[in-house]
Amino acid sequence: MSPSFETQLASLAQSLRSGNLTLIDYLARLEAYFDEKNEPVQAFLPEENRFDRLRQEAAALEAQYPEPSARPPLYGVPIGVKDIFHVNGFKTQAGSKLPADSLTGPEAESVTRLKQMGALVLGKTVTTEFAYFAPGATRNPHNLEHTPGGSSSGSAAAVAAHLCPLTLGTQTVGSVVRPASFCGVVGFKPTSGRISTAGVIPLSPTLDHVGVFTQDVAGAALAASILCADWQVVAPTDERPRLGIPTGPYLDRVGSDGLIHFQKTASKLTQAGFTVQSMAVMPDFDQIYEAHMALMAAEAAVVHQDWFGQFGDRYRPKTADLIKRGQNVSPTLIEAARTSRENLRDNLQTLMTEHNIDLWISPAAVGTAPAGLDGTGDPVMNLPWTFAGLPALNLPSGFGENGLPLGLQLSGGWYTDEQMLAWAEQIAELVK
């Protein structure tokens, strides 16, 4: 079933703001579609009288902004929010069986910001338990027998299923870019810290990033311009970025089908006139991987110290194992991991400067979404960019032989988010 309404963020926002599409009419059409589509995909957590609430909020928004010219950028746009973000009026369960009253907190700054810009919270989206690997009920809209990825499972699936045009997620290893790839949507995580993580239950405070899912790059850029600190408008340019392929032990982690598809995608860009240069990077990738995982486990153990002490028997095995591993990570190893993170960022930045590279391109995942719902897939292709804190983006780049989406990952330099998204507009049309 295809929706009978606009699902791309920028154009929907314009239609609602201008009044060409009335908010009440839009919600009526969305309700009919939502009730049918969310049931098999299970992107959103259940909520009684969801659309009665939304109609009340929409009426208040219309009363506040009767004149289209005064309406904020996201007037009436419904958003999905991963259930580790605190949202006023909603409980936060974080995909867990812990008592909700133990997980309370002030509303996430990112949510408040979007609401200030006129957005309506459609609901909470399903997350893996505490944004780690124990999956929730969400299914991949392209094939219900396959994972949507994680940990931002519901947020990726909601956009892919056209349930809403914008969702919030988080990435600590690969939890935005990977599910975006698996579900065939745009997923963007900015430079570390550019979107506030305040009001979000952390997994690893050093490594956590807030990110967004949209149908297209224009939507991601609009959301980023609202959410990212110190956002600068970049003038459109026909100048093409110079692209680097990071060969070596990192790229060796991709699956054979994923690698073939990536090579074909890179060839498309070369044929379109882009300069694409392969170079050996991250020869110590195994050590980078271990440092990231050790730091994440150690910080998760600190975050969950009190909760795990009280409710340890309610944690699922994968999450409990992470916390137990983290309890045994030494302070020396934690400090070494943080140093490794800074070194990786510096090394990647230096290579980009020395070789005149604007963006790295790589597979967004090792392949298509695996069959089954017991896991969420391997985030290894996203790990180094998250560890370094560099901006990263998934662009849908076609489909595998099994009919499931594949993605191209773009990674930029420190605080080059604006330019990366501008260049992504050029690349997106060539690779999809």
What does the model show?
This protein is an alpha/beta fold. The protein contains 14 helices and 10 strands. It has a 10-stranded mixed β-sheet with strand order 2-1-3-5-4-9-10-8-6-7, sandwiched between helices. Helix 2 (23-41) runs antiparallel to helix 3, helix 9 (285-303) crosses helix 11 (317-327) and helix 9 (285-303) packs across helix 12 (331-354).
Can you describe this structure in just a few lines?
The protein has about 425 residues and is α/β, with parallel strands linked by helices.
What number is the mean pLDDT? Answer: 97
Order of helices and strands: HHHEHEHEHEEHEHEHHHHEHEEH
* Number of E-state strands: 10
Structural class: alpha/beta
Number of helices: 14
- Low-confidence segments: none
Strand neighbour order, sheet with most strands: 2-1-3-5-4-9-10-8-6-7
- The proportion of strand residues reads 5-15%
Shape estimate? globular
Quote the distance from N terminus to C terminus: 22 Å
Q: Which percent range fits the helix content?
A: 40-55%
